[in-house]
Amino acid sequence: MVLEAIGPVQEIPLALWILRGRNMKYDAFRLEESYHDKIPDMIRNARAYLGRPYDNQFEFDDAKIYCSELIYKAFKQAAGEELGNVVALGQLDWKDHEAFIRRVSGGELPLDRLLITPADLAKAKQLRRIHTE
Q: pTM score > 0.90 for this model?
């Protein structure tokens, strides 16, 4: 099963999750062994967000949740440390997406908004890539 946040936070079978992905390609990561004792708490923490709506504004509140935020928060609550580096929207390559950002943000361009991206999660020192498809 995969806990995901692309709509309401939900659990879905891994096979379905892979089928819905881009060209059925995905990467899998595993926590370093020193964090394995945190996994049950991490799963419990992530499940606490079940049913929450998707956050297309990428805010760090708990009312709505986006994909990498779910993993980041579940880990931080379990391990007491950050997973990956939080960045400001303005640090990202956002210009090609300006119209969309303004549309979902009510016309503003919140370049100081902090968020965690999937790419920044993938670079976390606590993770190692175990599969690339």
A: yes
